[in-house]
Specification:
377 residues; alpha/beta; 7-stranded parallel sheet; 7-stranded mixed sheet; 18 strands; globular
Length: 377
């Protein structure tokens, strides 16, 4: 049985380990014994408590692995991926680190390592969809609308996060890069709000966030591209107010003689209100639109995803949609021999028709279903 090491046993890392254990021998490593305890007694999973910021320890954990999954927090992601590549192990990464993954492309090529990065739901499946169509038509417009939301709306935030509030807040403070008329433009996060209707959910509000990532480089020939985050109406305005008042600032201020970052205070206040309770229902919604010329016909492809918390397995939708995209990419490596040396953002996976439908079919088996429609314009 082939061996997979999963670095990180958070919400998504655990879902990845459990899914991969159906076909492989899995070693799950994390610094948290509490996280690892949730994987106890699951067949084909071994756990090990470890400091994943220790390069030497990572090397030990992955020494006998046939493939590695990087599921550590974003601030650790780049260095962890670099260590994996130095150890010459194929890897699928979902840490979504802020650094440019292509900075490791030469190292990966030198070590003949296949590294798939940003392989979640978005970034991830939206890139794969774009990569597929980019090879088969002249794409002129790409849009991804995506959000993870609690099933129950509750003021004042109308939102909850399955991970640290700081990671979410960064989406609201980091300038958004979009492609407009063939040029990269930078706009403030939370700008250009739109109300959009989704079947079974109702009206949501979209706004600019910095989610295009690698496709700004790999798909720079497409003149118009944007990614927008979805929330319940009202959440955006509340976050904009807090941001503009300075609550999300990383610059320290003095409070009663103590130096504190407003961001840390805001995060500490939000954490108990944003944290999901065990068994609490939530969902992931995504709409990907690709427009352009196909065989001299102007067409629009639309992919809709609506995925809910799985009560039977007590797996969150965000863990399912992100984690199972990752595990399918691992299977693509292990079973379909995807082995392109270097850094591979997800759009590279989608270029091959067999890879594209393998990804969709494997996700469908796990009831993560993308419904596609085609229109002639």
């Amino acid at each position: 049985m082939k061996k997979i090491t999963v670095l990180g046993a958070g919400m998504v890392g655990r879902a990845i380990a459990i899914d991969l254990a159906k076909n492989y021998s899995v070693l799950s490593a994390d610094i948290s014994d509490e996280n690892l305890s949730l994987l106890k007694d699951i067949p084909n999973i071994k756990t090990e408590q470890a400091n994943l910021s220790d390069e030497k320890k990572i090397s030990e954990l992955i020494a006998t692995a046939d493939c590695v999954v990087g599921a550590v927090p974003g601030f650790m992601g780049f260095k962890t991926l670099e260590t994996i590549i130095k150890n010459k192990k194929p890897v699928v990464d979902i840490s979504f680190f802020p650094e440019d993954a292509f900075a490791l492309d030469e190292l990966a090529r030198k070590n003949n390592v296949t590294a798939i990065t940003d392989c979640g739901v978005a970034p991830g499946m939206d890139n794969i969809i774009l990569g597929y169509h980019n090879k088969r038509m002249s794409v002129k417009y790409f849009e991804c609308l995506v959000g993870g939301l609690p099933a129950e709306r509750k003021l004042p935030f109308q939102y909850k996060a399955p991970f640290s509030p700081i990671d979410v807040i960064e989406e609201y403070t980091r300038p958004a890069r979009l492609m407009e008329n063939g040029k990269v433009v930078i706009k403030a996060a939370l700008t250009e709000p739109e109300f959009i209707h989704f079947d079974q959910i109702g009206t949501l509000e979209s706004f600019n966030t910095d989610g295009l990532r690698s496709i700004l480089k790999t798909m720079s020939h497409i003149p118009d591209m944007k990614e927008k985050t979805l929330r319940y109406p009202g959440h955006r305005a509340a976050m904009e107010m807090l941001r503009d008042m300075g609550f999300f600032s990383e610059e320290k201020i003095s409070v009663n003689g103590k130096e504190v970052r407003p961001l840390d205070v805001a995060s500490a206040i939000m954490l108990p209100q944003w944290k999901y309770k065990k068994g609490e229902k939530e969902f992931t919604v995504m709409r990907v639109t690709v427009e352009g010329s196909e065989n001299n016909i102007q067409v629009r492809y639309t992919y809709n995803l609506l995925d809910y918390y799985d009560q039977a397995t007590q797996t969150s939708s965000m863990a399912r949609t992100t984690g199972y995209t990752c595990t399918t990419a691992v299977r693509l490596m292990m079973e379909k021999n995807f082995s392109r040396p270097g850094i591979n953002p997800p759009e590279f996976l989608g270029e091959d028709e067999n890879n594209f439908y393998f990804m969709l079919d494997e996700l469908k088996k796990r009831y993560v279903i993308y419904k596609a429609t085609r229109e002639e314009l």
